[in-house]
Write a structure and sequence with these properties.
The protein has 472 residues and is α/β, with parallel strands linked by helices. Helix content is 40%, strand content 18%. The chain has 19 helices and 16 strands. The protein has helices spanning 9-19, 39-44, 49-52, 65-72, 113-126, 149-160, 178-191, 212-220, 236-239, 257-266, 292-295, 298-304, 319-341, 351-359, 365-380, 403-406, 427-439, 444-453, 460-469; strands at 24-29, 34-37, 78-84, 87-98, 101-111, 168-171, 201-205, 244-248, 268-270, 277-279, 283-288, 308-310, 344-349, 391-396, 421-422, 456-457. Strands 2-1-5-4-3 form a 5-stranded antiparallel β-sheet. The chain is elongated and about 95 Å long. The protein starts with 8 loop residues before the first helix and ends with a helix. GO terms for molecular function: ATP binding.
Length: 472
């Protein structure tokens, strides 16, 4: 096969292709002088491409990302928003090495000024009106219109059915949103008038008590004299009267299930050590990471499990749901920055970074997913002391992802062989992970072993070659 450089006419073809892009493209030599600028780049600075050739890039783009890329001779993607002639650009730039010698660099960028102005208007509106209906208590449940639609509808019926309200059970792995769903049921019950606006929501984690007797006294209360030094004390059932009692990790109530059954059946409780029945009107929501049908008394499960609501782990959620969750957490981060500092923050995740986030396995589910998103934005964003503008754009790329948090020891769990990340699929992603592990002092063999456990199919000699190419 003849090599491309034997066909000089291909240079014109490649120039035409690059000129047809909607992004600006600049190529500079190692001194920063332009050797190529496409049509879009020239339009941004109101110039002709041929007039730009040979000129220093700072003449047209004073804050060009390429200047920093060449200065640092970095081999990683560099994301930056530049301010030129009142316009703002999202840039990705890389150096060009030939035989390990720096020969220049190239940048691909797009004007995001209008998009940012529109985003700023949207953010201002967000702080004046709610984007979600205030009449919908379940608006914080992401995916309620798709994968969780059935669960949300059942949750409404627990308190909204004509024959209700009913007690219910919520099951799901840690971090799937059981507490959030319980609170949504509470808000919905207030919204439709099943409980009063000032009705209490009392929450307790039953697994926090190593002593079940103490747990029982907390939930049911105790009477004076029931044990040495004891005084009359209301339990959580009494505190939740006319409201909702949320028993998280309810499987831990092994020894006092009969008391709970009696409270639900009769509508009365008796304090530990007491001799008087106290009437209570309480909706009980029991949540657990375990199958309560296997650990509760059959009669108790029958009363609580009339509505058994299941929240799937993140790995069982659809890609659309994950994208919606990612977008929601980005919006919350941006809103928090606006509320605290009055800064209009616009966060964009690169396609590569987004692909990693959406395809990873999260043992702690949505809670862990949220924390990793926040960590990534923290890494990409400047410190508040370095922010000089009320409008700030942040590009989150692969190098900003917390490798230690994402590629955990359990990250390959529940991942099939077809889901493995092949070396040739995402070379930049793999390179980033290799360099991060190398910085920790690992050699090629150990790096390959670690990556193999994480589902990345690579040999030790391939790792060694990549490190050599990176001159690391």
């Amino acid at each position: 096969m003849k090599k491309c450089f034997e066909f000089p006419q291909l240079n014109n073809i490649f120039s035409d292709i690059i000129d047809s892009l909607n992004e600006g493209v600049n190529v500079v030599d190692k001194q920063g002088n332009l050797v190529f600028a496409n049509r879009i780049s020239a339009q941004y600075v109101k110039c002709e491409p041929e007039d730009m050739i040979g000129k220093h890039i700072s003449q047209y783009y004073p804050q060009a990302a390429l200047l920093e890329v060449i200065d640092k001779r970095t081999m990683v993607f560099y994301g930056k928003v530049n301010h030129t002639n009142g316009r703002k650009y999202m840039v990705k730039a890389k150096p060009i090495f030939i035989d390990k010698k720096l020969e220049g660099g190239f940048a691909i960028f797009s004007d995001i000024t209008e998009m940012e102005n529109l985003n700023n208007k949207i953010r201002k509106l967000r702080h004046k009106i709610s984007l979600k209906s205030k009449n919908d208590a379940f608006s914080n449940i992401i995916g309620s219109n798709s994968s969780l639609g059935t669960t949300v509808e059942k949750a409404r019926k627990t308190v909204g059915a004509l024959g209700g309200p009913r007690h219910c059970i919520i099951t799901g792995e840690s971090g799937t949103g059981k507490t959030l769903l319980a609170r949504c049921i509470y808000y919905y019950a207030k919204e439709i008038g099943v409980i009063k606006p000032d009705a209490p929501f009392i929450e307790i984690n039953c697994a926090q008590f190593t002593n079940t007797d103490i747990a029982a006294m907390e939930i049911f209360g105790c009477s004076e004299g029931s044990f040495t030094g004891s005084k009359d004390k209301k339990g959580l059932f009494e505190m939740a009267n006319n409201g909702i009692l949320f028993l998280d990790e309810a499987h831990a109530l092994n020894n006092y299930q009969n008391l709970l059954l009696k409270a639900i059946e009769s509508g009365t409780i008796r304090r530990i050590g007491g001799n008087r029945d106290i009437p209570v009107n309480v909706i009980v929501i029991a949540a657990s990471t375990k199958n309560l049908e296997e650990v509760l008394l059959p009669e108790l499960y029958q009363r609580l499990g009339q509505y058994d609501l299941y929240l799937p782990p993140l790995r069982e959620r659809s890609v659309e749901d994950k994208i919606e969750i990612l977008t929601e957490f980005i919006n919350r981060y941006e809103a928090n920055v606006y509320d605290k500092y009055n800064i209009n923050l616009n966060v964009i995740f690169s396609d590569e970074a987004k692909k990693i986030l959406l395809n990873e396995y999260y043992p702690r589910n949505i809670r862990q997913f949220r924390d990793i998103i926040n960590q990534s934005i923290d890494c990409a964003a400047p410190l508040i002391s370095n922010v000089k503008d009320q409008n700030l754009n942040v590009l989150v790329d692969v190098q900003h992802l917390p490798v230690d948090s994402i590629y955990t020891a359990d990250s390959n769990k529940n991942r099939g062989s077809d889901d493995k990340l092949k070396v040739n699929d995402d070379p930049e992603i793999v390179n980033h992970i290799i360099l991060e592990l190398r910085k920790k002092g690992l050699g090629p063999r150990k790096i390959a072993k670690v990556l193999n456990k994480k589902g990345i199919d690579i040999k030790y000699y391939q790792v060694a070659y990549r490190l050599k190419q990176k001159d690391f």
